[in-house]
Amino acid sequence: MASESTSVIIVGGSLVGLSMSLFLAWHGVPTVLVERHTGSSLHPRAIGYTPRTMENLRAVGLGDRIPQAPPSMRLRRITVESLSGKWHDETSWNQQQKPQQQPQPQQ
Question: What is the mean pLDDT of residues 50-62?
Answer without folding.
Answer: 90
